[in-house]
């Protein structure tokens, strides 16, 4: 009996030492492949269909009527048509920085909404982001463009973050309450800086993203500023200095300017951003 127990213990240790393979789910592609002769540059992508859908199904708080959107065959087809428009991109054509940013922000948000509508009803995107086994919406849901595909993770980390524009973190939305609001209009070249600033100010005006505890000499920031702090500065004082223009009041800007202020981060709310 003791020998059997000893052998069982050895087998358990040996099994634990074996690495578990990462098995992903099957990829889901959105956007029809566009022939080379019909591809266009960033500046020529029309975001009007996306703008119309956002105005219809997203309120001023950024909450999405997923049920209504999913129930409308016309709206669902219009979203698919917009994704087909995004797929006509030729990324090698010369374009302005603003048109590239507008394209990729809109693309991230539209692909995310498409991913949620495929799963709805659901309570959180985290129900569909398997770490080891199965489908991961951030990795397996991919937008076709040119002769390749790109997933949400790569749009965020390999494309947008490398543009050196920290305000993208207040524009791209992962369908969660803890995210910035989903702006109920498309990002467009002509007003991009205004739109990015507007959503950044809205973000910090929300108690779930920014709090001051004067008695503890502490500012509490969204977890986004913890996960992506390096995009705002190389130290906590630098990060606070960078976000000052978007803070809601003069008192808040004065408080974060203190040299001894402490920084803590708030719990992130992964619940679905639905109406």
Helix fraction?
A: 40-55%
The counted number of beta strands is 8
> What Rg is obtained from the alpha carbons, in whole angstroms?
22 Å
Reported for the largest beta sheet, the result is:
3 strands, mixed
Q: What's the average pLDDT? A: 93
User: Could you say which overall geometry the principal axes of the C-alpha atoms support?
Assistant: globular
Order of strands across the widest beta sheet?
A: 2-4-5
Oligomer: single chain
Count of discrete alpha- or pi-helical segments spanning 4 or more residues: 11
Through-space gap between termini: 61 Å
Q: What structural category arises from helix and sheet content? A: mainly alpha
Low-confidence stretches: 1-22
Strand content: 5-15%
Topology summary:
Layout: H1 2-17, E1 23-24, E2 28-30, H2 48-57, H3 66-71, H4 73-86, H5 97-119, E3 133-134, H6 137-140, E4 141-145, E5 148-151, H7 152-160, H8 192-204, E6 210-213, E7 218-221, H9 224-227, H10 236-243, H11 250-256, E8 262-265
Parallel strand pairs: 1-3, 2-4, 7-8
Antiparallel strand pairs: 4-5, 6-7
Helix pairs in contact: 4-5, 5-7
Overall description:
The longest helix is centred in the middle third of the chain and has 23 residues, at 97-119. By secondary structure, this protein is mostly helical. It is globular, with a radius of gyration of 22 Å. Helix content is 41%, strand content 10%. A hairpin with a 2-residue loop joins β4 (141-145) and β5 (148-151).
Spell out the key features of this protein.
mainly alpha, 11 helices, disordered N terminus, 41% helix, three-stranded mixed β-sheet
């Amino acid at each position: 009996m003791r020998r059997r127990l000893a052998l069982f213990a050895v087998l358990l240790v040996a099994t634990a030492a074996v690495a578990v393979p990462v098995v992903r789910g099957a990829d889901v592609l959105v956007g029809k492949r566009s022939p080379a002769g019909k591809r266009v540059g960033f500046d020529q992508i029309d975001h009007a269909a996306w703008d119309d859908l956002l105005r219809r199904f997203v309120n001023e708080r950024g909450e999405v009527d997923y049920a209504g959107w999913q129930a409308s065959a016309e709206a669902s087809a219009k979203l698919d048509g917009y994704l087909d428009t995004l797929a006509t991109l030729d990324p090698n054509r010369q374009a302005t920085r603003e048109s590239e940013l507008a394209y990729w922000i809109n693309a991230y948000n539209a692909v995310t909404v498409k991913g949620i509508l495929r799963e709805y009803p659901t309570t959180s995107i985290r129900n569909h982001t398997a770490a080891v086994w199965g489908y991961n919406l951030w990795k397996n849901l991919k937008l076709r463009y040119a002769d390749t595909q790109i997933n949400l993770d790569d749009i965020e980390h390999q494309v947008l973050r490398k543009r050196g524009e920290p305000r993208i973190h207040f524009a791209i939305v992962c369908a969660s309450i803890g995210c910035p609001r989903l702006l109920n209009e498309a990002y467009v070249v002509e007003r991009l800086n205004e739109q990015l600033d507007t959503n950044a100010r809205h973000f910090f005006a929300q108690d779930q993203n920014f709090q001051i505890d004067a008695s503890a000499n502490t500012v509490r920031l969204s977890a986004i500023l913890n996960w992506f702090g390096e995009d705002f500065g190389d130290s906590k004082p630098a990060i606070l200095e960078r976000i000052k223009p978007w803070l809601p009041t003069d008192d808040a800007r004065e408080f974060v300017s203190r040299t001894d202020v402490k920084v803590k981060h708030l719990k992130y709310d992964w619940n679905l951003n639905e109406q």
